[in-house]
Amino acid sequence: MSFLPQELIRKKRDGGTLTAPEIEFLVEGITSGALGEGQVAAFAMAVYFRGMAPEERVALTAAMARSGQRIDWRQAGLDRPAVDKHSTGGVGDKVSLALAPLVAACGVAVPMISGRGLGHTGGTLDKLAAIPGYDTAPTPEHFVATVRQVGCAIIGQTGALAPADQRFYAIRDVTATVESIPLITASILAKKLAAGLDGLVMDVKFGSGAFMSARDDARALAGSLVDTARGAGLPTVALLTDMNQVLGRNAGNAVEVAEAIDYLTGRAREPRLDQVIRALGSEMLQLAKVASDPADAAARIERALGSGAAAASFGAMVTALGGPADLVERPARSLPTAPHVVPATPARDGIVTAIDTRTLGLAIIGLGGGRTRADDTIDPAVGLTDVAGIGETVGRDRPLCLIHARTADDAARAAAVIRAAVAISDAPALPAPVIAERL
């Protein structure tokens, strides 16, 4: 069926509801280039201001998922359910690195398609790129073979999956229409539907280090994701998690890989990070119907961690995708390190009562650990370790964190930024619960 693009844009601009065939026509035009950039931008702006009804969100998501290749895991010979997790991003969020192999060790396939850093938030692909030899963009055949053989693979989006999203997002990015819940929803879920999943768990973050700082906004996005995914036939659960402080102790790229390995091997498990990983893992096992209830899921997770199976899955994934075979046993041998490690001392002794976590993320970018432009090269070695959390006492013997920098001047600049981002008081303080809601 053929339509006039300008009439469909006008309809949405004036507050009308587009039909599924109309949305399909627009998505086909976005994919093929039949819609010019001005028309795509106008459509995005109309949605930004007018929103979308639930049925429009489902139609847009499904049409974008159909715009390219779709993976059929049963046809590929996978003998277990495939479930993924997606996070809206935060500072120190290395959850995926530990969660995918942990869930795989429990008998669920995790074909995880992740992204690079966005703004002040770190990207899972940037962390994995710190591992020498790790291929974040394998061929589709290699990706499928790794998931079938190991049980998990974390890679970047390929041009074959949901190509409509790549063009649509690029235009949204330069036309101030990224912050639209219907468009964010479709962008995230189109790739997940194309990946042939049996279930999806969303980690939607809120707080000073999150993409959406307000809890109400994060809840609205989570609700849209859950309702739209279910409407498109993908069982989905969302958790709202707190990002008012760094998740775990380290933030950067190589330093987060090191912390994920420490978590899997049991060398160190920061409580808030541990809670998020176990909660998301429990939801994934239940969606896959491998666990019958939360208690069953918790027991399976504990066995996979305690037996070393989860750490072995991580090592097998890294090796299958080109990384060093001994990374789990000897991470320091392979992961890059910065030449300067300097403590960020607090302005005064006391208790940490609040953290501007976004500023910590920007401090890492200032060290070279993130991008200010799309073509920037990331320094994988820089970052922060042993970051103090809310409620902890800091002073001369306990710095705010250790700064891993390329130069002493870089470290000094970062220390000043970090010092200004942390509020210290004499009064006791308790961090908010890390898991706020389940949708």
Main beta-sheet annotation: 4 strands, mixed
**CATH fold type of the largest domain:** Pyrimidine Nucleoside Phosphorylase, Chain A, domain 2
CATH architecture of the largest domain: 3-Layer(aba) Sandwich
End-to-end gap: 37 Å
The CATH class name of the largest domain reads Alpha Beta
Low-confidence stretches: none
Count of DSSP helices?
A: 17
Strand percent estimate? 5-15%
Strand order of the largest sheet: 1-4-5-13
Order of helices and strands: HHHHEHEHHEHHEHEEHHHHHEEHEEEHEE
pLDDT average, as an integer? 95
CA gyration radius, whole angstroms? 22 Å
Number of domains: 3
Annotated CATH homologous superfamily of the largest domain: Nucleoside phosphorylase/phosphoribosyltransferase catalytic domain
Structural class: alpha/beta
Please provide a written account of the structure.
The protein is an alpha/beta fold and 439 residues long. The chain is 46% helix and 14% strand. The strands form 4 sheets. The chain has a 4-stranded mixed beta sheet, with helices on both faces. A 4-stranded antiparallel beta sheet has the order 6-9-11-7, sandwiched between helices. α10 links the parallel β4 and β5.
Q: What's the gist of this structure?
A:
The protein is an alpha/beta fold and 439 residues long. The chain is 46% helix and 14% strand.
Topology summary:
Layout: H1 5-13, H2 20-32, H3 37-50, H4 54-65, E1 83-87, H5 95-105, E2 110-114, H6 124-128, H7 140-150, E3 152-156, H8 163-173, H9 181-194, E4 199-206, H10 215-231, E5 236-242, E6 251-252, H11 254-265, H12 271-287, H13 294-306, H14 309-320, H15 331-334, E7 340-344, E8 350-355, H16 357-369, E9 383-385, E10 393-394, E11 401-405, H17 408-421, E12 422-425, E13 435-438
Parallel strand pairs: 1-4, 2-3, 4-5
Antiparallel strand pairs: 5-13, 6-9, 7-11, 8-10, 8-12, 9-11
Helix pairs in contact: 1-3, 2-4, 2-8, 4-9, 4-10, 5-11, 5-12, 5-14, 9-10, 12-13, 16-17
